[in-house]
Amino acid sequence: MGTKRDDNPISLRPIGTVESSLTDPATAPKQGYEGSPDAWLVFDPAVAQGLQDLRAGEQIIVLTWLDRASRDVLKVHPRDDLSIPEHGVFSTRSSDRPNPVGLHLVEILEIKGLRIQVRNLEALDGTPIIDVKPPLHGVPDN
Amino acid sequence: MGTKRDDNPISLRPIGTVESSLTDPATAPKQGYEGSPDAWLVFDPAVAQGLQDLRAGEQIIVLTWLDRASRDVLKVHPRDDLSIPEHGVFSTRSSDRPNPVGLHLVEILEIKGLRIQVRNLEALDGTPIIDVKPPLHGVPDN
Question: Of B53, B91, B99, which is closest to A91 when you measure between CB atoms?
Answer without folding.
Answer: B53
